[in-house]
Amino acid sequence: MFLWKTQSSSSLMKIWIMRKILLPITGIIAAVFVLTAFCDCSMHDANAESSLNLISDQPFEDVPILPADSPMLISPVYDFSTYENLIQLKWTSVDTCMQYEVLVSRNVDFSDSTTTFKCSDTLFTFNGEGLMRGVVFWKVRSIRGNGEFSSWSEFSRFTLLGRIDIDRDVNERIVAPCNGNCANCTRPCGRRRPVPDM
C-alpha cells in the first residue's frame, strides 16, 4: 500500500508539474513563435510591396536579343586591364559565316576614327602598340558568303595601361645616374642641375 501511494504521489506530482509549470511555458514559447512568424511575414510583405512600387515606377525595357548569326564575345573579359600591347580578341563562331569584321574604337558609341579588321577565324590578335593608354571598345559581326552582314555583337572593353620600360628605368637609376649634363646624355631626363653663378 505504501509503495502504491509513493508511485501515485510521484505520478500526481508529475501531473501537477506539467499542468502548473510546463504547459504555461510551452504556451508562452508557442505564442513567441507565432508572434515572430507573424512579424516576420508582415515585414516581408512590406518589403515586397515597396519593391513592387519601385519596379512599377521604372519603365520596362526589352532586353536586346541578338540574331542567331551575331557572334558573342568571349575574351578578354569586360573591363580587362593589361600592360601588354598584343591582346587576343575571341568570339563564338557563326555557322553561316565566311568572314568576321572586328571594330575597335576609343569611344563607346564608335563615333571616333574607328579601326576595322577582317579575319576568317574567331581569334584576332589586336596590336595596341601605337595607342595611348586608356580604354578600348570592340565588337564583331559576321559576314555571310553572299556578302550580307549580321548585326553587331554587344560591345566589350579593355584597358591598355602602357608598358613599363624596365631596362631604361634600371639603366637610369643604377648604371648611369644623372650627372646633370643633359648636353652629352644619351637619355636626357631634363633634370639639369642649376648652373653656379660666376
| Number of helices in the DSSP assignment | 2
Could you tell me the mean pLDDT? Answer: 71
| Fold-level CATH name of the domain at 73-160 | Immunoglobulin-like
Q: What low-confidence regions span 5 or more consecutive residues with pLDDT below 50? A: 41-48, 50-56, 169-175
Order of helices and strands: HEEEEEEEEH
Kindly provide the radius of gyration, computed on alpha-carbon positions and rounded to a whole number of angstroms. 38 Å
Question: What would the keywords be for this entry?
Answer:
198 residues; alpha+beta; Immunoglobulin-like; five-stranded mixed sheet; three-stranded antiparallel sheet; 2 helices; 24% strand
Structure explained in plain terms:
The protein is an alpha+beta fold and 198 residues long. Helix content is 33%, strand content 24%. The chain is built from 2 helices and 8 strands, in the order αββββββββα. The strands form 2 sheets. The protein has a 5-stranded mixed sheet, with no helix packed on it. It has a 3-stranded antiparallel sheet with strand order 1-3-6, with no helix packed on it. The chain is elongated, with a radius of gyration of 38 Å.
Provide a quick synopsis of the model:
It is built from 2 helices and 8 strands, in the order H-E-E-E-E-E-E-E-E-H. The strands form 2 sheets. A 5-stranded mixed sheet has the order 2-8-7-4-5, with no helix packed on it. A 3-stranded antiparallel sheet has the order 1-3-6, with no helix packed on it. The chain has helices at 2-57, 166-175, and strands at residues 73-75, 80-82, 86-91, 97-105, 115-119, 123-127, 134-144, 156-160.
